[in-house]
């Protein structure tokens, strides 16, 4: 049976039309009640073990009741159950299944001078500049690139190394307007792309993402030992980037970029700097021990 067919047939058994009082509250309470009944059956299984011989039958019944209430709510809100299921599967795939093969990089059709380097090796080093401790980013020849950074905070929280996050986004996602600015790789041959994708607003959004990820990580041991990131953070990132080219990257890819970035950042912070290496073709980003 197709979902929309089930939805239509289920509606024929609805005893509470939209003209009734509490026409929305009834199915909402029904959902809560049936979910509780399902949990209760599992409690019985834990208590009685194999003696609870009706467990599977009870689960089947409770799941059916849940499906009815879900279909009822969908109908009352003029939603298609099949479309709901389709959207949910797309969301789950985006969240948990990264592409098998790395997708094409965003700047593949631009001159090489305007492409993010397909591989890079950079060093973060502590320097005393104007009497203040700063972190500078050095290229392979030892020349500084970008701006020197401090924590911009009252406490030593390691945020002065946060260029690591932008470089991680470049390596894993193939996207980072901030990295393009640092390395002089803005796509100036296309004025629209240069202004929108590589411009100031895009960089502000990327900085906001880095700051939000840092704030989240600071409350979770800087993601040490973590293999998942809270869905709300990932969804906020997807909403922030919905109008830019990086919208093509899924939440699973963002999760990898953030987790990898913090893995490298932790090593850089512990070592007070160090060498990092990125490979856009392999979508890899690592701390290099030398």
Folded structure, characterized:
With about 290 residues, this protein is α+β, with helices and mostly antiparallel strands. The protein has two domains: about 5-95, Orthogonal Bundle (Helix Hairpins); about 110-290, no CATH class. The protein contains ten helices and five strands. The protein has helices at about 5-10, 25-50, 55-75, 80-95, 165-175, 175-185, 190-195, 200-220, 230-240, 250-270, and strands at about 120-130, 130-140, 145-150, 275-280, 285-290. It has a five-stranded antiparallel beta sheet. A hairpin with a 4-residue loop joins strand 4 (about 275-280) and strand 5. It starts with a helix and ends with a strand. The mean pLDDT is about 95.
Terminal Cα span = 62 Å
* Strands, count: 5
What is the alpha-carbon Rg in Å?
26 Å
| Alpha plus pi helix count | 10
**Strand order, largest beta sheet:** 3-2-1-4-5
- Major β-sheet profile: 5 strands, antiparallel
- What is the number of independent domains? 2
Computed structural class: alpha+beta
Helix content: 40-55%
Averaged pLDDT: 93
Approximately how much beta-strand content do the residues carry? 5-15%
Secondary-structure element sequence? HHHHEEEHHHHHHEE
Approximate shape: elongated
Given as residue ranges, the uncertain stretches (5+ residues, pLDDT < 50) are: none
